[in-house]
Write a structure and sequence with these properties.
By secondary structure, the chain is α/β, with parallel strands linked by helices. α5 runs parallel beside α6.
C-alpha cells in the first residue's frame, strides 16, 4: 500500500501523522510511505530521519495526495485539502464531523472512505477510545497550564492556582471525569488548586476518588450542582464527551455571568462544538476571547502546542491500526474488529454515523446514510 503523510496546515498545528519509527514499521511490512517535505519539523523530525526510515520525501502536497492510497493525518482536512479528497482513497485522522458541516459535505461529495480516530473503540465494554485517549491525556494536562496562565493574564482575575501560605487557593471545576477530565484534575491538584470533578457517571467518580485517595473532590453532576460549582470556580475545564456526537452545552452563559470577573474557562470539548454555551473555536495564535466577564480558551487543537510529545503518543496508538489497514485493506481490517469499524464515518458518498447526521441535520439537510455493517458486508 502507498501511504501518504502530508504536512498539517491547520493554524499552528505542528504535529504530524506518523513518526520516523512508524515509517520504519510500515516499510518493514513492505509498504511505501510518502512524506511531505518538512512535515515533521515541528515535532522534531527532519526529512533525513524519515528518509533513513525508508520514506520517500515529496515537495508537492498535490502529488502526495494524488499518489497516496491511504492518507494519514492528525487533524481534519481544511482549505485546499478538501479539493484533494477522492473516492478511491482512505483517510485516517481525527475528524470530529459533528462540528464540521463543510468537511462532512466535502467527504460525501468526494466519496472518500474516512476513518476517524476519535470513535474507534476497544476493550470488553467497547467504551475505551484507544486513539482518542492519548490526545485527551495531553489536552487534559495542558488545560490547567493554559487556564493558570490566563488567570495571570491582563484579562484574568490574577489568581495563582496554588496560592501561597495565607491566601486562598484557586478553585477548579472539571466538568466531565473521563480521560481528559481526570488528567486535568490531577495536574490542577498538583499545582495546588482545590479541584472538584463533576460527572453523571458515579462509577467514574468512584474510580477517581479511589485512585487519587480523596485528593480530588467529586460531585454527581446535575443542573443545580453544576451552577453552584461554576459560580464558585476561578477556572472551569470542560471535558464532556459523547463519542461522535456534538458536545452538550452544559455550562450556560447565565452560569458564567455568576462567576467572579476574570475567571477562566477552558473548553477541551471544542472539537465537538464545545460544552460551554458561549464557546467558539479559537487558535493557538489567538487562543482566547472575553465574554460575560470571563476569559474563554477554546483552542481546537490544544495538543498541537506540544507536538513532540503529542506526535509520539499518537503514533504509538495509531500505528497498530494503520498496519492492519495497510496489510489487509480497510474492509477486511474493519470486518475483523468491530471496535475499529466504529471509526468509519463516510464511504462512497454515504454517512455511517447517525450521531453526525443528527448533529448536522440543519446545516446539511438530507444526506445519504448507511449502516457500517452494510458497508462491510
Amino acid at each position: 500500500m502507498i501511504i501518504g503523510v502530508p504536512t498539517e496546515i491547520k493554524n499552528n498545528e505542528r504535529r504530524v501523522g506518523l513518526t520516523a519509527a512508524g515509517v520504519a514499521e510500515l516499510t518493514a511490512h513492505g509498504h511505501q510511505v510518502l512524506v511531505q517535505a518538512g512535515a515533521g519539523l515541528g515535532s522534531g523530525l527532519d526529512d533525513a530521519a524519515y528518509q533513513a526510515a525508508g520514506a520517500e520525501i515529496l515537495d508537492s502536497p498535490d502529488l502526495l495526495w494524488e499518489r497516496a492510497q491511504t492518507v494519514v493525518k492528525v487533524k481534519e482536512p481544511v482549505g485546499p485539502e478538501l479539493q484533494r479528497l477522492r473516492a478511491d482513497q482512505v483517510l485516517f485522522t481525527y475528524l470530529h464531523l459533528a462540528a464540521a458541516p463543510e468537511l462532512t459535505a466535502a467527504l460525501l461529495d468526494a466519496g472518500t472512505t474516512a476513518i476517524a480516530y476519535e470513535t474507534v473503540t476497544a476493550g470488553p465494554t467497547g467504551r475505551t477510545l484507544p486513539l482518542l485517549a492519548p490526545m485527551s491525556r495531553v489536552a487534559g494536562r495542558l488545560a490547567p497550564l493554559a487556564g493558570g496562565a490566563h488567570l495571570a493574564s491582563p484579562d484574568g482575575s490574577g489568581m495563582l492556582l496554588g496560592g501561597v501560605p495565607g491566601t486562598r487557593k484557586a478553585r477548579v471545576a472539571v466538568v466531565g471525569g473521563g480521560v481528559a477530565g481526570e488528567n486535568a484534575a490531577v495536574v490542577a491538584a498538583g499545582m495546588g488548586a482545590r479541584v472538584t470533578v463533576l460527572d453523571v457517571d458515579l462509577e467514574r467518580l468512584a474510580h477517581i476518588d479511589a485512585v487519587h485517595q480523596g485528593r480530588i473532590d467529586t460531585l454527581a453532576s446535575n443542573a443545580l450542582t453544576l451552577a453552584e460549582q461554576v459560580a464558585e470556580a476561578d477556572l472551569v475545564i470542560g471535558s464532556v464527551l459523547i463519542p461522535g456526537a456534538a458536545a452538550p452545552k452544559l455550562v450556560t452563559r447565565e452560569m458564567v455571568q455568576a462567576m467572579r470577573p476574570g475567571s477562566v474557562l477552558v473548553d477541551i470539548a471544542i472539537d465537538q462544538g464545545g460544552c460551554f454555551e458561549g464557546s467558539r473555536p479559537t487558535t493557538h495564535q489567538n487562543p482566547t476571547f472575553v465574554q460575560d466577564g470571563a476569559v474563554h480558551y477554546c483552542v481546537t487543537n490544544m495538543p498541537g502546542a506540544v507536538p513532540q510529545t503529542s506526535t509520539a503518543a499518537l503514533t504509538n496508538a495509531t500505528l497498530p491500526y494503520l498496519l492492519r489497514l495497510a496489510d489487509h485493506g480497510w474492509q477486511p481490517a474493519l470486518r475483523a474488529d468491530t471496535g475499529f469499524a466504529r471509526g468509519l464515518h463516510t464511504h462512497a458518498g454515504a454517512l455511517t454515523q447517525p450521531a453526525v447526521a443528527e448533529a448536522l441535520a440543519d446545516e446539511l439537510g438530507h444526506v445519504h446514510t448507511a449502516d457500517v455493517a452494510d458497508v462491510l458486508a
